């Protein structure tokens, strides 16, 4: 058991990481959006519906992790997430003064593709959480497909689908469940920004 002298720097580092990530998302959400695009309303409305569905799936996973394993505070796991190498997906091309449509769609797709990989890495998290995780994976994959198909229609899709990079390796059941809390939390932050951007684009 680590003593107070060891725990204090670790807690400080975890707090610093949490504040850094919070500041990043605050800046992104506070930045004004550029003018609305000419993306099809049917596409944008479908995306908004998919975002809300995934947010519900993610909340269900977080609630079950909290109720079953008492992992209720993602901020307490920030240091572990850093050591495991759980990444964040950027959306820097979306909430900007001059919204870069091609870049924004690409970052939306890349972020969803990243979370597909992270959710796949959580497989085997527990028998109780398996069905919820499966639903979340499926809905994230469907949303990624929706974005990709629109990119293809606009001629913005790259020639090849992206390939998945290295994912975190969870060495224990605790790490996998703690990783589940962090991945779900990161995904929710990503979706909040995504929803705001898509809602703006859907305005007449």
Automatic annotation (TrEMBL):
Highest taxon above the source species: Eukaryota
Gene Ontology BP term (one): positive regulation of cell population proliferation
GO MF entries: cytokine activity; granulocyte colony-stimulating factor receptor binding; growth factor activity
Cystine bridges: 66-72, 94-104
Coiled coil feature spans: none
InterPro entries, per database record: 4_helix_cytokine-like_core (IPR009079), GCSF/MGF (IPR040117), IL-6/GCSF/MGF (IPR030474), IL6/GCSF/MGF_CS (IPR030473)
Signal peptide: 1-30
Predominant location: secreted
A Pfam family recorded for this sequence: GCSF
Subcellular location: Secreted
GO cellular component annotations of the record: endocytic vesicle lumen; extracellular space
Keyword tags: Cytokine, Disulfide bond, Glycoprotein, Growth factor, Secreted, Signal
Assembly behavior: Monomer.
Family assignment from sequence similarity: Belongs to the IL-6 superfamily.
Function summary: Granulocyte/macrophage colony-stimulating factors are cytokines that act in hematopoiesis by controlling the production, differentiation, and function of 2 related white cell populations of the blood, the granulocytes and the monocytes-macrophages. This CSF induces granulocytes.
Annotated protein name in UniProt: Granulocyte colony-stimulating factor
Organism of origin: Homo sapiens
Gene this chain is encoded by: CSF3
């Amino acid at each position: 058991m680590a003593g107070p002298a060891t725990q204090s720097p670790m807690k400080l580092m975890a707090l610093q990481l949490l504040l850094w990530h919070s500041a990043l998302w605050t800046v992104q959400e506070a930045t004004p959006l550029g003018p609305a695009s000419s993306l099809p309303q049917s596409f944008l409305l479908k995306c908004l519906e998919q975002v809300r569905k995934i947010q519900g799936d993610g909340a269900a996973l977080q609630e079950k992790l909290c109720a079953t394993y008492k992992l209720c505070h993602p901020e307490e796991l920030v240091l572990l997430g850093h050591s495991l190498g759980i990444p964040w997906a950027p959306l820097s091309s979306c909430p900007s003064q001059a919204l870069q449509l091609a870049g924004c769609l690409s970052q939306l797709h890349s972020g969803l593709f990243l979370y597909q990989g992270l959710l796949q890495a959580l497989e085997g998290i527990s028998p109780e959480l398996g069905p919820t995780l499966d639903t979340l994976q499926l809905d994230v994959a469907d949303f990624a497909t929706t974005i990709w198909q629109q990119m293809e229609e606009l001629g913005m899709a790259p020639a090849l689908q992206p390939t998945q990079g290295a994912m975190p390796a969870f060495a224990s059941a605790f790490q996998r469940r703690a990783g589940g809390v962090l991945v779900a939390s990161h995904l929710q932050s990503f979706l909040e920004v995504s929803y705001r951007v898509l809602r703006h684009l859907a305005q007449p």
